[in-house]
Specification:
Elements lengths: L8 E6 H4 L9 E7 L2 H6 L1 H11 L5 E7 H10 L1 H7 L3 E4 L2 H14 L5 H18 L18 H15 L4 H6 L5 H25 L8 H10 L7 H33 L7 E3 L4 E4 L2 E4 L9 H12 L2 E2 L1 H15 L2 H14 L6 H10 L2 H5 L2 H5 L13 H16 L4 H7 L2 H13 L11 H15 L4 H13 L2 H8 L5 H11 L2 H16 L8 H15 L15 E6 L5 E9 L4 H11 L3 E6 L2 E2 L2 E9 L6 H13 L5 H11 L15 E7 L2 E9 L4 H11 L4 E9 L2 E9 L4 H13 L3
Parallel strand pairs: 2-3, 7-8
Antiparallel strand pairs: 1-2, 1-4, 5-6, 6-7, 9-10, 10-13, 11-13, 12-13, 14-15, 15-17, 16-17
């Protein structure tokens, strides 16, 4: 049928098929164009053909349009016109095709370029919001995420609409894209296309999120051959993020050129400097000013003082001349001074430091930032790459100082916080540029060198380096220790330093934790963190726990808007009590996240923080727990086995990241402390305590902590005579397949 003008229809490829960018297992978008609805209603062959496509093995999507309908749709819906920019004629009816081109050509002069730009920018903003405004997620969405294929398509659409130049070479010819931008886009598009092809082939479906489970396979198939899987993935992901960054920033540059050409920038100016003014929220040079190298340090001072972005010409000037400034000793010193000034302004950190990195000035000053810029993190709970995580921690500090939080305000506005905390957050993970293991200690000499070059006072450098070295300590303490063990708390407080240092670490930990994954920090963790901080500062003024009534009791505090409940059980102490209680909660479909124990004579009052099934009612759960206690946990083992069989179909994802299970047993005074790190699974605590029971261990304290599918459990037990066998038995349990 191709080429015959007698066909009653014209068939177009649209979307990726129209652009000839189809990938394995992608959908095929088609548009069937008929003159009017009568043609469709009378032509059963066309109807049968469309119905056949619905039931075919291919994912074919056919849009039926009439000539009049196309005209109405493009007038009412800008996105319809955008979709037709990618049309490619497959089956021709010369009359219909000619009429469609006439209608589209007639519509273009009527199209409001301003409205089109606003619609496209709104759509892009919604996509960035959906992907957490982060262009460097550890599992990037390579189609719709920032810097992905959709941004590449926007460059083509903008070229067509605003300059009648539908490809990047034409945009280069009319000087709307620079030579280096076109070269970067060509490399980036080839790389991202190759990644998407591998992703679709390996997944055998239309998948666009590059998960950690597939990154190693894609890297290997694309020729990365570093010695270890981790090195292979690190280099591959660094290249992918760099190419996505190129696409994202080039689209932003082109957008600014469009805004300038459409004269959308407000003309009202605010003078902020003898050489610069603010117009439309951007710092621009006065008309009579010619930019020089001397202006670059001044511009970064204005950036931190006023929080406005740079105009496109200023950005281009900085990008092209940054190395000359960095290599000039006098200008470098001025730039370092402005960098230190930037770090003293909480509330503006995220925006300012994003510009320092995006304009490649920060990596030019300190090459270590080029290393961490697009570095993935081999840790199970991080969703951001290393630099993005650092930025998010600073952004959280910005949020804290601009939000009324009565609990933190007294600490946040101490003068030493603004002097020291931003620098500590910027540098806290810098040691990961070498390796993840022991990165806190490895980061200290790197941080010290940067701080010294930025002229920080010696005392401030020591405090910041201590924060870098200890930045994991506070969270690790409340994750694995008894906060009522006051001698240990006091020893930890002395390790950290004076109250000023403790306050800085307290705030740093909050910002760091909130920047790992927005879903991980919660009220329970905050309460543990705050309790430890209070005990460190005033250990001798803490409230003494009152005696409790020795009678069986169950008390449930269901926290509003959360599935984490506090369940307090009062009952007689019996052999292997924790093992029995763990089994009971497992049989009820609950997961234990923490335990607080209190022993009084032969009685125990223990508070369990548990997550419960969504359908659970407090009264019903209370009744089942009381019944189990009163029956002395009869048949618990059988009930646990039944529950575990019900959840045995759960799929545990596997990925390339090195997270081996670990068991350590240390002797402390009259006890042994067992620390266990492993992937969480149903019934884990029940099986761990079973091993301890079989080894006749006397448990005096337990801290159970689960995060992002990873269990960190600590048991205090009375001194055990056979630590080697105990360790081996625990390790054997952890190596068993769930």
């Amino acid at each position: 049928m191709v080429g015959l003008s007698t066909e009653p229809f014209a068939l177009y490829a649209t979307g990726g098929y129209g652009r000839e960018e189809i990938f394995p297992n992608s959908d095929l978008d088609l548009m069937l164009l008929v003159e009017n609805a009568d043609v469709w209603e009378k032509n059963t062959a066309l109807q049968d053909w469309i119905q056949a496509n619905w039931t075919s093995d291919l994912d074919v999507r056919v849009a039926l349009r009439t000539l009049d309908g196309v005209e109405t749709d493009i007038a009412n819906h800008i996105h319809t016109y955008t979709s037709l920019l990618d049309r490619r004629l497959l089956v021709e009816n010369s009359n219909l095709a000619s009429l469609l081109e006439t209608k589209l050509s007639a519509f273009l002069p009527k199209l409001s370029r301003t409205e089109y730009l606003k619609e496209r920018l709104t759509e892009r903003s919604l996509r960035k919001t959906k992907f957490i405004h982060a262009s460097a997620l550890q599992e990037p969405e390579i189609k719709n995420g920032p810097g992905g294929l959709r941004d590449l398509q926007h460059i083509s659409w903008f070229g067509s609409i605003f300059y009648s130049a539908p490809n990047i070479n034409q945009l280069q010819h009319i000087d709307k894209l620079k030579n280096y931008e076109v070269e970067g886009l060509n490399r980036a598009s080839r790389f991202i296309f190759a990644v998407r092809e591998e992703l679709h082939t390996l997944s055998n479906k239309d998948v666009n999120t590059l998960s950690t489970t597939l990154q190693l396979k894609v890297a290997t198939n694309m020729g990365y051959s570093q010695a270890t899987p981790e090195e292979r993935v690190t280099e591959f992901m660094r290249d992918l993020f760099w190419h996505m960054h190129i696409v994202e920033k080039t689209l932003e540059m082109l957008t600014q050129r469009v805004i300038t050409d459409l004269q959308l920038t407000p003309q009202k100016a605010s003078i902020i400097h003898p050489h610069f003014k603010v117009v439309g929220g951007q710092i621009v040079a006065h008309e009579e000013v010619t930019l020089t190298l001397e202006h670059i340090p001044e511009l970064f001072r204005l950036l931190s003082d006023y929080s406005f972005s740079f105009s496109q010409p200023i950005r281009e000037f900085i990008l092209e001349n940054r190395m000359e400034v960095v290599n000039n000793p006098r200008l470098r010193q001025l730039l370092l001074y402005e960098f230190r000034n930037t770090l003293k302004q909480p509330g503006k950190l995220y925006q300012s430091l994003t510009e320092w990195m995006d304009l490649s000035v920060l990596p030019a000053l300190f090459p270590v930032f080029a290393t961490i810029r697009f570095q993935v993190q081999m840790e199970h709970y991080h969703i951001y790459t290393l630099w993005e995580h650092t930025l998010q921690s600073l952004k959280h500090l910005d949020t804290l100082v601009t939000t009324d939080d009565s609990e933190l305000t007294q600490h946040l506005f101490q003068p030493y916080v603004s002097d020291l905390l931003p620098a500590a957050l910027l540098l806290h993970d810098i040691g990961k540029s070498i390796q993840n293991a022991n990165h806190a200690a490895l980061g200290v000499p790197i941080a010290r060198g940067i701080l010294e070059e930025c002229y920080f006072p010696a005392d401030d450098i020591e405090r910041i380096c201590l924060l870098v070295n200890e930045h994991l300590s506070m969270a690790r303490f409340w994750q694995s220790h008894d906060l009522d063990d006051m001698p240990r708390v006091e020893a930890f407080a002395r390790q950290i330093g004076d109250r000023k240092q403790q306050t800085l670490l307290y705030l740093l930990t909050i910002c760091d934790a909130n920047a790992t994954n927005p879903t991980l920090w919660n009220g329970y963790k905050y309460s543990l963190h705050s309790s430890l901080f209070a005990r460190m500062g005033a250990p001798h003024s803490l409230e003494i726990i009152n005696p409790f009534q020795e009678a069986i009791d169950v008390s449930i505090l269901a926290k509003p808007d959360t599935l984490f409940w506090n369940v307090t059980l009062t009952q007689p102490i019996s052999q292997n009590l924790l093992h029995q209680v763990a089994g009971m909660f497992t049989s009820l479909g609950c997961s234990i996240h923490a335990v607080q124990t209190h022993v009084q004579g032969n009685w125990s009052r223990d508070t369990y923080t548990v997550s419960v099934p969504s359908y659970t009612q407090p009264a019903v759960l209370e009744g089942k727990i009381k019944s189990a206690i009163e029956s002395n946990y009869t048949n618990i083992a059988t009930k646990v086995d039944e529950q575990l069989k019900r959840v045995s179909t759960r799929v545990y994802s596997q990925d390339h990241r090195p997270f081996p299970s670990n068991v350590t047993i240390n002797e402390e005074n009259d006890r042994h402390v067992i620390s266990i790190q492993t992937k969480d699974r149903p019934g884990l605590l029940y099986h761990l305590t079973k091993v301890l029971a079989e080894m006749n261990c006397t448990i005096t304290f337990v801290k159970v902590y689960t995060e992002a599918g990873w269990a960190n459990d600590t048991f205090y037990i009375a001194k055990h005579p056979d630590v080697k066998t105990l360790r081996n038995n625990l390790k054997a349990l952890l190596t068993q397949t769930p």
